[in-house]
Amino acid sequence: MVMDTFSDLAFFKLLIKQGTLAATAQEMGVTPPSVSKRLAALEGRLGVRLLHRTTRRINLTPEGEIYLGEGARLLDDLEQLERRVAGARAQPSGLMRVAATLGFGRRHIAPLLSTFARKYPAVEVQLSLSDRPVNLVEQGFDMAIRLGELPDARLTAKLLANNRRLLCASPAYLKRYGQPLTPRDLQQHQCIVLRESDDIYGTWHLHRGSQQETVKVRGPLSSNDGDCAMAWALDGHGVLLRSEWDAAPYLRSGRLCQVLADWSLPVADIQVVFPTRANLSAKTRALVDFLHESFKAHRKPDVLYSGW
């Protein structure tokens, strides 16, 4: 009975990860009706409905959320127990699913994973790039690279690099429109707005000592892609709020100038995050340690533009 319970937990976790009965059936090598029958048997045994399902999608019920959350923890505990007994932590191996943002992931994480793959050939890495937030626990990721604050208490974070947000504009734009002297001046400027995730866009928060300013900005150009926004700033279309890692090369070369340099914006420290566990798998620990070591030159909070 206990082994059946763990088998059902693993089945349900896989079902949520795959997202549909058909995808789960394909992953298991069985037919969709057999997956539907097994789900019905599981719900019958528990006496509750775990999913709301249609022909196209499935959604967790409140009982399903509890079963998935607690069940995933139990499966992790069992996996860790077996790993300790078998000594599997000595050799990193198996599949690692990693999430990262588009720009930072493409430019910085992907090249590092190339080196990591050569160092640990027994580890298979799947890198998923998106500027939309991911839920590590529900979507089955082993880790993610995030910029900014940690949103979930179920996650553990390790700092990779210090990173600030900056306001910048091209010399040509500033020559034409002048330097903003206060945050309120930004409302009279053309600002390039980056639409990220589902957050309220175009609202910038600045502080200097005890002073706090929140300004709503606007401009003729906006995008959900940081590379497009940066290209427009370089082309003189307005003031851009961007991470230091992205803007630093252009600030060093003089193609961009920092705006309102005596004001600060919310930091965007770069962190690797992973589900909180008492014992990390060998593959997770190896990749976390590898990334942490690779970024050590960038954990210098008082050094401006330290080589991005």
Question: What does this entry look like structurally?
Answer:
The protein has ten helices and 14 strands. It is 41% helix and 22% strand. By secondary structure, it is an alpha/beta fold. Residues 302-308 have low confidence and may be disordered. The strands form four sheets. A five-stranded mixed beta sheet has the order 4-3-5-14-6, covered by helices on one side. A five-stranded mixed beta sheet has the order 11-8-12-7-13. The chain folds into three domains: 2-86, Arc Repressor Mutant, subunit A; 92-161 and 271-298, Periplasmic binding protein-like II (D-Maltodextrin-Binding Protein, domain 2, 3-Layer(aba) Sandwich); 165-259, D-Maltodextrin-Binding Protein, domain 2, CATH 3.40.190.290.
State the main characteristics.
D-Maltodextrin-Binding Protein, domain 2; five-stranded mixed β-sheet; 14 strands; 41% helix; 308 residues; alpha/beta; elongated; disordered C terminus
Task: Write the SSE topology.
Elements (H helix, E strand, L loop, with lengths): L1 H17 L2 H8 L3 H15 L4 E3 L4 E3 L1 H25 L7 E7 L1 H18 L3 E7 L6 H4 L3 E5 L7 E7 L3 E5 L1 H7 L13 E4 L8 E6 L2 E6 L5 E2 L2 H9 L4 E5 H10 L3 E3 L10 E6 L6 H13 L14
Parallel strand pairs: 3-4, 3-5, 8-11, 8-12
Antiparallel strand pairs: 1-2, 5-14, 6-14, 7-12, 7-13, 9-10
Short description:
By secondary structure, the protein is of the alpha/beta class. 41% of the residues lie in helices and 22% in strands.
Separation of the first and last Cα atoms:
55 Å
Proportion of beta-strand residues: 15-25%
Number of helices: 10
Which structural category do the helix and sheet elements fall into? alpha/beta
**Total beta strands:** 14
The overall number of domains is 3
Order of helices and strands: HHHEEHEHEHEEEHEEEEHEHEEH
Mean pLDDT, rounded to whole units?
Answer: 84
Query: What is the CATH T-level topology of the largest domain?
Result: D-Maltodextrin-Binding Protein, domain 2
CATH class of the largest domain, named Alpha Beta
* Low-pLDDT segments: 302-308
Strand arrangement, major sheet: 4-3-5-14-6
Fourth CATH level, the homologous superfamily of the largest domain:
Periplasmic binding protein-like II
From the coordinates shown, what is the CATH architecture of the largest domain?
A: 3-Layer(aba) Sandwich
